[in-house]
Every structure is written in C-alpha cells, then in structure tokens.
Sequence to fold (312 residues):
Amino acid sequence: MDALKTLVESCRRGETPYQMLIERVPYARFLGIEAVARGEELLFILPKSDTNLGNPTLPALHGGAVAGFLEQAAIIFLLLEMGEPRVPKTIDFTMDYLRAGHFRDTFAECRVTRLGRRVANVHISAWQVRRAEPIAIARAHFLLSEETASD
Amino acid sequence: MTSRDAPEYTRLDICKRFVASVKHSTLLELDVLEAGQDSVRVRMPYQDKLVGNPDTGVTHGGAIFALMDQAGGLANACLIFPDFEITPTIDMRVDHLRAPRPGHAVVCEAHCYRLSQHVAFVRMSVFEESTDEEPASDDLLATGLATYMRMKLPGVSKVVN
Fold:
C-alpha cells in the first residue's frame, strides 16, 4: 500500500493527527496551515503570520496566500473523501474576495458539491471573525483520476 | 507626457518598489522583468518550499495563483502610472492548463485591458522558462482572469516621492 493511502487511512481512524497530511506538503508548511478535527468536521487554520502579508500599510493578508490556503484545504479535504487517495490536481480555481483579510488568524471549511469519479467540485469559505462573515469564498474543480472516459 | 516635469522613476521602478513592500511576494522571490504601458512580466523561480505534491515536485497551484494575483495588481499600476492607487482583487479565476515542470521558473504576463472609473480588468498567462537541461515549452501553464477595485487613497497618489 502506498504511503499516502496509509497516512490517509490512519488519519481517518483518528490514529494520526490530520496535521500530518499538511506537514508532507512543503507549500502548506510555507504558509503555516493547520488542520484540526472538530468532531467529524475538519477545520483549517491559517495562523496570522507576517510572512503572509500583502499590503503592508493596512496591514492585510496577501490575497494569493489566502487563495493558496483555501486550495490546499480543499485538496486535504478531498484526499479524506477519496476511496483511493491520490493528490487531486487543480483544474481551475475561482476566488471571490469579499472583505479585507486582516492581520489575524483565518479559518476555512470545505464543502464537496459533487464528487465524481474523475472530477470534484468543491466550495471553500474563509472567515476571521464570524463564519457568517466570510472574507473570501472559492469554488474549484479538481481532477481526481487520470482514467479516460473509456476506462 | 503632460507639461509636468517628467517623473524620475519608471513603471518598472514603481513595480519593483511595490513588490519589495509586499512581504509575501518577496518570500515568493517575485521579480518584475518588464513593465509596459498596461502590462508586466513577473518571474517566480522554482523553489522547493513551494512544492504542492512532494511525490512529483510540482509547484503548488496556490503559489502560481499568488504570482498571477500580484502580477495583475502591477499591470493596474502600470496603466494608472504616474499616479498610484492600491487595487485590491475583487475576483480571480485561474485555469491550470498543465503542471509546471519541477526545476523550471515560471513567468506571468499580466495585461490590464480595461480600466474603468472603479474597476480594473486583467488577463494573465503563465509560461515556463527553460533550464540548463531542458528547453522551455511554448505551451501555456495557466491562464487567469481577474477584476480589481480602484482605491484612491488621499495623499498616497504617488508611490515614490
């Protein structure tokens, strides 16, 4: 069995913290992403860090850092949903910035709108103060399998 | 150019200074190669810390997204030049046409094709550079489409003074 599948199954059983799925991804460590289980829900956190600052005078988070955070959150979320976990490939990623991302912790949650055999559609929401006041929402498609339609 | 004195700084100066002030962009090692009337070319070297899939070494889509978002903002600055405004992103869509090859730097070309009173509209394309071992492919890596909001900050009309 491959290492990623072993890790995902261990996380699912609660024997390994979800954070281990983050730690294996260099870019996720670069942003400083954290993943914590809340019951059966998964919450993603981007702790405030000056390395993710965009506008220095406001100060505000870099929109690209927030987008990267949400994309990585969706990838981890999908890995845990997939029967045969393989790192999903981003097909497209669409980000709506609703409020300034202030210099404070940012949270994200994912919702899989459709999990097909080859393509998944995921909605991701990010907030800082209240879940009901998102600072950004994203919608993305991921390629889950390289199988052709005839396979 | 108007009858005012010609500014002593260029669009490229403005863009480089802008990027230098953005902590996250300096950590992505973004380098502005060219700045035209309404467009820029921004380079991001291949970096181990930006890898999204440790099994393949492919750069994370989020890092490409951040490069494109920053390049779009610079394209706006070029068209707004010699004035300066900050232009927070309203929305942006990126299509990842194919994975960037490990080891190759990527270059984003961003073009602000419409600047209305309140909104800037930008298109981006991302290509890869050649390495010593492998020539660059002509194929696009990613395309992007974004809108930005123009914010005229009183007293901050010039980035350089």
